[in-house]
Write a structure and sequence with these properties.
alpha/beta; six-stranded mixed β-sheet; two-stranded antiparallel ribbon; 12 helices; 12 strands; 30% helix; 16% strand
């Protein structure tokens, strides 16, 4: 609808109060390389006082917070895309909660390795982390980065900081005749993004950049059970991201190539006939289709349940456990106590429609006197996802039914 009269046009914004939901599912991270920034004097010249330094953790609640650190549109140059990724994150999720850290690591792989220290510095609060690097590299470097990222994710899970890692598909060429099958990389907690706004992708500063900020924002906005390719909820269109595109500005004209990329577990964007907008193709991770952890939402669901269960059980570490004096097994009261403790902590995920059901089982026939280990089994029935909807449609002749 066009403007009818000259007027003062007011747009209501959201997110300025910095309010956050009680859940920490949206807490995200962005790791990047780039120059330091400095406080400016009254003449607009840099002083010696650093605003944005290497290996320092900063927490952002808005784009304005980034600008306060000197990360502005002018910061994005020579391959650096930090400001673009941050603005896209907060565009998708104005209530987002974003940790950032800058490093001087010279290669994509070594920068990814720095993610482990960032997760430690954030004390495990980061649930999903994107990594971007300014170097123009081949896709081989991206594959190496995927391997390093999975190592970081494995270590994070072992140390009670489960995380999903999103990487730019640097060096990706959508016009190629052959593509790397990402399922062969066996990286169930890593996703590779090759999507980029078509207009931004042809600009020199963003020629080897992928829109990981868009993915990070969408994931942080979603419930842990939700697929970020859900058409009804995740239309990605907006300022800075208006058209389907790929890293480097190359385009795809055949649905066959898109199907191949989807089968090979790349995350890209697409449009749908009959509805406007730009949407993700799916929520892939770099592992085989038959894995329980082949989609981001499956990982986020299990990670959330893992954190909740550990928090519930942690106070019980080193606690005395009553055993049956005749058999040495666990009596019903002990079994029920631990099962109730875990189930009560996890039931909120059911009420939030993040899982369909949760079962907790403590086997009474375990010899805790021998090994001092209490074994608890938690089984989660996840939410399903309607990735494909099949409809049968045809004509019906009412006359024949009444004959």
């Amino acid at each position: 609808m066009g403007v009818l009269f000259n007027d003062v046009v007011i747009t209501k914004l959201s997110g300025g109060l910095g309010r956050r939901t009680p859940d920490q599912d949206m807490v995200s991270g962005l790791l990047f390389d780039g120059p330091d920034t400095f406080i400016r004097n009254t003449n607009g010249e840099n002083t010696d006082e650093v605003l944005l330094a290497n290996d320092q953790l900063y927490r952002l609640a808005s784009v304005e917070d980034a600008e306060g650190l000197g990360i502005t549109e002018n910061y994005d140059q020579e391959g650096v895309s930090a400001f673009y990724q941050i603005t896209q994150f907060f565009r998708l999720n104005p209530s987002g909660d974003l940790f950032i850290m800058k490093s001087d690591k010279s290669t994509y792989a070594t920068l990814v390795e720095e993610a482990e220290q960032m997760l430690i510095n954030a004390e495990g609060q980061i649930r999903q982390l994107a990594v971007i690097h300014s170097n123009t590299v081949t896709f081989d470097a991206t594959q190496t980065a995927v391997s390093r990222a999975q190592t970081v994710a494995n270590n994070a899970f072992t140390n009670h900081r489960p995380v999903e890692i999103f990487l730019e598909g640097k060096g990706f060429d959508a016009s190629a005749t052959n593509f790397t099958d990402l399922t062969s990389l066996n990286a169930e907690n890593v996703s590779v993004v090759v999507a980029m706004d078509a207009e931004k992708a042809v600009q020199e500063n963003y020629s080897n950049t992928a829109a990981v900020g868009v993915l990070l924002g969408a994931v942080s906005k979603a419930k842990v059970s939700e697929n970020i390719a859900w058409i009804e909820k995740f239309n990605l269109t907006g300022d800075g991201f208006r058209a389907v595109g790929f890293v480097g500005g190359t385009t795809l004209t055949t649905e066959g190539v898109q199907k191949t990329l989807n089968d090979f577990k790349y995350i890209f964007t697409r449009s749908h006939i009959g509805i406007p907008g730009v949407y993700f193709n799916d929520s892939h991770t770099c592992t085989i289709q038959t894995s329980d952890f082949t989609f981001i939402e499956a990982n986020r669901t299990i990670h959330k349940a893992t954190r909740i269960a550990r928090t519930a059980l942690l106070p019980k570490v080193n606690a005395p456990v009553l055993v049956d004096p005749d058999t040495g097994t666990l009596p019903p009261s002990t079994v029920k106590g631990y099962e109730t403790l875990c189930r009560a902590a996890l039931e909120r995920m059911i009420s939030n429609e993040e899982v369909s059901e949760i079962d907790v089982f403590v086997d009474p026939n375990q010899d805790i006197l021998a090994d001092s280990i209490l074994k608890v089994r938690i089984e989660i029935v996840p939410m399903g996802t309607a990735r494909r909807i099949e409809v049968n449609i045809g004509f019906k002749n009412p006359f024949g039914l009444n004959a």
